[in-house]
Amino acid sequence: MDADKPLRRVVIIGGGFAGLYAARALRRAPVSVILVDRAAHHLFQPLLYQCATGILSEGQIASPLREVLRRHHNVETLLAEVVDVDPVRRLVIALRPGGSRLEIPYDDLVVTAGVRQSYFGHDEFAAHAPGMKTIGDALAIRQRVFGAFEMAETAATVEERRRYLTFALVGAGPTGVELAGQIRELATHTLRKEFHRSTPEDARVLLFNGGPDPLASFGPTLSTRAAAALTHLGVELHMNSLVTNVDEAGLTARRADGGEEHHEAATVLWTAGVAAPPLAQAIARACGVEQDRSGRIKVGPDLTVPGHPDISVAGDLMSVDRLPGVAEVAMQSGRYTGTRIRRAVQGHRPPGPFKYRDLGSAAYVARGRAVVTLGRVRLSGFVGWLAWLLLHIAFLTGFRNRLFAVATWLVAFTREIRPERAFTAREFETARDVYAAIKGGEAAKHAVTRLPGAGAVPRQTGEREQPGAESARATRPEGRRGVQGPPESPGPRDSGASGGS
Ligand SMILES: Cc1cc2nc3c(=O)[nH]c(=O)nc-3n(C[C@H](O)[C@H](O)[C@H](O)COP(=O)(O)OP(=O)(O)OC[C@H]3O[C@@H](n4cnc5c(N)ncnc54)[C@H](O)[C@@H]3O)c2cc1C
């Protein structure tokens, strides 16, 4: 290889399962990788419900991306939210926290930005019914759930107490089922003896689902068993019920017979449906490609965007072969994409089309009860729960997190203790998103981005060169360009003034 030739730049948008596996597949490739994520951590979403219900801490399910990728010397991680892509100039356009703008040139682009909660056209429900996709969501749910038990304790009337002790969940997929089971468990075990005026065991958990069965994707046998386990726990199943309205008093659902019923509940949680984020629409528009009904980007058999062989989409955000949005699809598609790019750079034959190997799925129903599919094998009850435990230990990111999670589970499952019950008194909805642009002249103060190793980015006036910094720059891998403008404009492209809204 020509030593003077700059390394090919691969930009990965998103450090979820797909982005992480793509970066790992490129570890020994002669490329420089920039992984840009709006969060600084990789999140293990399948355990969000345990964070929300006080079993695990945020740190046990989220690992700093810098730490996870610290041994990947060709990978740089950046904190920014990507808002657009310019396929002609090969630029990724992002906002830094605070709203100033960042432009990142790429040779290959891998989009793995995942999906977000969908309220099926009723985004106004979100204020009353948080979804569960991020650490922020899990902490908001933790606040509402534990806060509701506190409010029940000081309720002025029986009706008010009943309202605070009613939890309504929308969606009986794995997340809804897991949350429903957890809330009943914490009411009947963890909190049972801690309150004096109210009785946590009286907590009602209502689970609403448009379809006829909970956990329908696990097939009729496991779905029936899950329904029985939930009923045994005291979860009230409202199947074939379409939620038509959510407000501060609770929700309204339409039954299969057409009748509508309002259910009073102080806490409503939403786990039904996903939609692509606005970035997908921006990419589809810029590349002239199709999106499916959920807004996911349609890709070809090699997971590239039709007409743009330098842009791939992997994980939840890709639409191909009706594959489900699960972690295993994300991992395999991310790894495939990283490998495909590595082979191309090394001059090897491209791999065949992407083929997903279904390794099964698992859902936790209650302590000692889970349902698991592994190929043709169907497990439930205690055996299913053991399989669930092993699968999650194996896939949880980072050895430290695995160790701590196992230790916490030992305590939580044997002694009914939930160590992570702290919640803040601040309303989560009022917290400003760090990517909302700073308005007016404020943004100008943040006009220049300075990034370590970015040769084109000027240092702040008066900033002292650290001893050895010059030589450190000189020893950086060849071609590892910093975040800067496109080749035709050598100066920094970061202009805070145009930071969006
Ligand atoms: C509550 C819950 C429970 C789940 N349980 C299971 C389970 O038990 N088993 C299973 O197989 N699957 C489960 N899943 C699904 C699984 O987690 C996803 O399929 C998987 O995380 C998808 O990986 P991804 O990399 O495509 O997206 P994600 O993991 O969502 O990662 C996307 C990343 O992109 C970043 N990002 C988003 N937009 C931008 C932007 N504009 N700019 C920069 N960065 C951006 C995000 O911060 C995030 O880090 C669950 C999901 C949830 C939400």
Automatic annotation (TrEMBL):
InterPro entries the UniProt entry points to: FAD/NAD-bd_sf (IPR036188), FAD/NAD-binding_dom (IPR023753), NADH-Q_oxidoreductase (IPR051169)
Broadest EC class assigned to this enzyme: oxidoreductase
Sequence segments annotated as region (Disordered): 449-501
Sorted UniProt keywords: FAD, Flavoprotein, Membrane, Oxidoreductase, Transmembrane, Transmembrane helix
Gene Ontology molecular-function annotations: NAD(P)H dehydrogenase (quinone) activity
Domain FAD/NAD(P)-binding: 9-334
Cofactor: FAD
Gene Ontology process terms (BP): aerobic electron transport chain
Pfam families found in the cross-reference section: Pyr_redox_2
Name of the protein in its database record: NADH dehydrogenase
Species, as recorded: Actinopolymorpha pittospori
